[in-house]
């Protein structure tokens, strides 16, 4: 697509402003590590709150939401909406504690809370694991989105998108440190939010759509509109709603929504003027993040289903997209390409702003880990402030290079990375909550949890895989209503033999496809005619592979055996499952005012699995449990390991515990033993009487009220978008009532003033 001169002028002006911000604050930022990484601990709540939400805006987040909506409907957003609970816990419980700790980074907490070599080890190891590997994985997913935007909007090579996209942000993040990032975030967020809203407006004005009302009435998206799962079957609501809300928020460590706070959120809280500013910043962040921001992206995602119902339709319109990046999440930048001159430049600038705000934060956060928790702690203990700032700038550049390599090599789509990040942190979340309130948690607790979570996650993803996970539960009574069992040794042998032959053929076909992809990339550099010709050959091979896989699927091979004793029962199973699916579809259609569909128009794409001497033919909803099962297995195994480890390993040194409690005074029964023993030794470490006047009950009430306020606001906006004005105003009323009680309760949580 071609950008006009005005588009380039807007993008250029934007880049000049953010670079100037870096130059303006660079001199003061270089004066000390506290200035470079924490802004001198003097930042106000409103600026920090906007910075937090700008960081999580990211150019990959609209891609992620678009992919979720296209694949699973609006309800799929519960995968991240559930983290609001984590956010509210951070606001009203942990923001105060982090600010009291006075650490430079959340990893410095380890040697404040724990003792011995194990504390030093976990601090050093996580500084590299989180600050480098994990952090670069996150930045890689964001950069992947930048690559897709570059392919659609600018038609440039992936490496060009990485280099050009990262140059400006590396400059201002390295020059100005966190202050540069925060002030740039404030400027960039306003542009990014405007761009998202305007993109939604333009999406609704497309000729294929004809306005928001017509979009919501379009039959193509009726099944995607609900933000609540289908409660008629647990196969829908358990993985979509119950697991995220009841388990995921407290059990899983995820960047930006860490149980107990942490990461760049902790960095922003530590940069606040005082506890009240830390609380205000995180509250503003959660409100803007969950209540205000999602709906423009959701509207664009729904519109994309109408304009580009399949990936093939996107490929036809944008033949220059690399086949490796053609996934559902690319629909967002594709819709952005429909904007006209001027506004296209503004929205592209907004996406660049979203990219830079996220990358800038992660660069500064990651370098703070590498410098404060590894370089200063283990490598050069006598490093001067100037040397630490210099090292921070060096790390900023290095981290961006690693993230670019990740994006250019193995990452494919935003939703894939989201699942990987969730699974690798499963089971560790409860530790980050409890370590503040139970003295018995020690460094070995976290070490074993981290190691176990990583090993189990890799074992499940690379060893067990999707098919292995299905085998864990496919034969259970819980799913038997949606599964047909074929216990026929002869047909099992035939199917296994044919699939073995087909697997070798598929491997050869994929090798041919890889060669054709390379040929397409080469042709893409030559001219449009050569590119299109190479793409036709590539697409033909893709179709050949799809046909080959379908012909050799378990269900196809089983269906060919029509003379078996169980064949008629299998056909009855198909009919019953199609009828069940039809009833579910028509229930939603009638509710939306559409005509019911006849049985012939709803066909379930049944799947098959061979396990031992049995073949299972099952409804695809069964496969929807796969990730939830993987998550629960990780959580159970990791939790057992860390609880046992905690009980059998030595406790933290007594003086370390007393010093930590004196500084942070979290209170509660989990610290009563430490406080009582200290008092017996003539040492009063509970001068704030946090044991006797424990604030946690009123804090939990504030967490509940905060969740109700923001969820009510989120769905009030959703109802206004959907045209349900009455419900919208009712939910606004609920939000206002809970805000009233929230403010009445807030003064009782014991926030302390002063630095």
Keywords:
single chain; 755 residues; mainly alpha; three-stranded antiparallel beta sheet; 3 strands; 2% strand; globular
Describe this protein's structure:
Helix 8 packs across helix 9, helix 8 crosses helix 18 and helix 29 packs antiparallel against helix 30. A hairpin with a 2-residue loop joins strand 2 and strand 3. The chain is mostly helical and 755 residues long. The chain is built from 30 helices and three strands. A three-stranded antiparallel sheet has the order 1-3-2, with helices on both faces. The mean pLDDT is 84.
Layout of secondary structure:
Layout lengths: L4 H25 L3 H6 L6 H13 L2 H13 L5 H4 L2 H18 L7 H5 L2 H39 L3 H47 L7 H6 L16 H18 L11 H8 L4 H18 L1 H14 L3 H7 L13 H6 L6 H37 L5 H25 L4 H11 L4 H6 L8 H31 L9 E4 L2 H36 L3 H24 L2 H6 L7 H25 L15 E5 L2 E5 L7 H23 L5 H11 L7 H9 L15 H27 L2 H22 L9
Antiparallel strand pairs: 1-3, 2-3
Helix pairs in contact: 1-9, 1-17, 3-9, 3-12, 3-13, 3-17, 4-14, 6-13, 6-29, 8-9, 8-17, 8-18, 9-14, 9-17, 9-18, 11-26, 12-13, 13-29, 17-18, 21-26, 22-23, 29-30
